[in-house]
Structures are given as structure tokens and as C-alpha cells.
Specification:
By secondary structure, the chain is α/β, with parallel strands linked by helices. The protein has one domain: Ribonuclease Z/Hydroxyacylglutathione hydrolase-like (Metallo-beta-lactamase, Chain A), CATH 3.60.15.10. The chain is built from four helices and 13 strands.
Length: 228
């Protein structure tokens, strides 16, 4: 699989059979093979995760087979082949591809894709959103809800290793910036983990690795164009 970071929480994953484009907001796409299908996945309708202009953009780029997988809070654009997904549900995408949707702790869903023998996870805004300015009760409930969803994700993978994982690492949480990613790494096995949602502050990746050097083999630098 080939992984390309586009911007914020947007990644393009290319397999032998198709492309997956996650949470496109803006950014330059690489040259694409118009004969390959592309699945555009949007975890929720917030402006930093979904831009409906992606569909005409892909058409102008010569993509002939475009399919959307949209969280059910996103209206389906006209003339777009789209599947709306809801948290807690599983879907057959065809051609050996399955998708499970998990409930975000913000809005929408997180995605787990099983593509033949590969597992791809994109968190969307599923994260342990603990904030210093919030009440202890709010933060406690947030952590409970986040860990419930990670347990469901762990159950869904049945002990298998996730091949690609795109997980929130948000510097706005200050001292709690690493809570969600650390818990994910403690509970699940993942070969390659791509921090995202860091608001153009990639130094948070270096800070995480300084605080948690044990995860250095897994953590990928999302500011580079990566090929795996």
C-alpha cells in the first residue's frame, strides 16, 4: 500500500485495486490513475474533514469511478454515488472490502476497512477529547466513551494487527495531547501509525516521540510523502 499525506486529517491510500481518500478538506492531490476506482470517505461534516468540492475535483482529474462513503450527518451531493454509514454498523463495499463504523466522541464516525488481508483504521474525530477548561465530570465521561469505542475496535479486529492507522494527535489539548493516541497504542497492535489533526503543527509528532520513544518504530512522519 502507498500512503500520501494531503492535509490535516486527509490521507490518500493506494492499493493494487483502488484508492481510499479520507477526510478531504483541501490540498494538492497527486497524479491519479483514472482507471482505478476511488472511494472518498468522510467521517463527518465539519469543514476540516469534508469538502464536497472533492467530487468535481476528482472528475476534472479524470477519475471515472468515484464512490463516496459518508457519515450519516452529511447530505449526499447530487449525482454522487454514495453510501451513508452510521455508527455501530458494518457494510460490504464489494470486491473483498468490508467497513465497520464506530461512534465518534465528537461528530460522525471512525472507519475500519478490511481490504482482503489488510486492515486500515481512520479515527476521524474519535479521540479522548479531555480539555483543561472542562469539568471533571465532562472529562471523565469523555474518557469512558472513548475507551468504549476503542474496545469495540479491538473486538472488531479479533487480535489482528492493523496495517495502517490514522489517529488524532492534537496540540490544542496541551498536557493531555497524547491521551487518545497512547491509549490506542496500548490497546491495539498497529504496524504504521500516522498522527493527524495537528493543525499545521507537526512539531507535536516530535514531542510525542520524545515523551514516548517506545513507539518510534510505529509512528510515521505525516509531513513527508510516504510510500509503504
Amino acid at each position: 500500500m502507498v500512503v500520501r499525506y494531503i492535509h490535516h486529517s486527509c490521507f490518500l491510500v493506494e492499493t493494487d485495486d483502488c484508492y481510499y481518500l479520507f477526510d478531504y478538506e483541501k490540498g494538492q492531490l497527486p497524479e491519479l490513475d483514472g482507471n482505478k476506482p476511488i472511494i472518498v470517505l468522510s467521517s463527518h461534516g465539519h469543514g476540516d474533514h469534508y469538502n464536497p468540492e472533492i467530487f468535481p475535483l476528482l472528475e476534472r482529474a479524470g477519475m471515472k469511478r468515484i464512490r463516496a462513503v459518508l457519515s450519516d450527518d452529511i447530505p449526499v451531493p447530487r449525482n454522487v454515488d454514495a453510501l451513508q454509514v452510521s455508527p455501530g454498523m458494518g457494510y460490504d463495499l464489494g470486491c473483498g472490502q468490508r467497513l465497520n463504523a464506530f461512534r465518534s466522541t465528537d461528530l460522525g464516525v471512525a472507519f475500519l476497512i478490511e481490504d482482503h488481508d489488510k486492515l486500515i483504521y481512520h479515527a476521524g474525530d474519535l479521540n479522548d477529547w479531555v480539555w483543561e477548561e472542562e469539568s471533571d465530570d465532562y472529562n471523565e465521561q469523555m474518557t469512558i466513551h472513548y475507551r468504549e469505542q476503542i474496545q469495540l475496535l479491538s473486538d472488531a479486529v479479533h487480535g489482528r494487527e492493523i496495517d495502517l492507522a490514522f489517529v488524532v494527535l492534537d496540540p490544542r489539548q496541551e498536557k493531555d495531547y497524547d491521551r487518545g493516541l497512547c491509549y490506542f497504542l496500548e490497546r491495539l497492535s498497529a504496524k504504521q501509525v500516522y498522527p493527524m489533526h495537528y493543525w499545521d503543527d507537526p512539531s507535536i509528532i516530535d514531542a510525542f516521540l520524545k515523551d514516548h520513544p517506545e513507539y518510534e518504530p510505529q509512528i510515521q512522519n505525516t509531513e513527508s510523502i510516504l510510500q509503504r
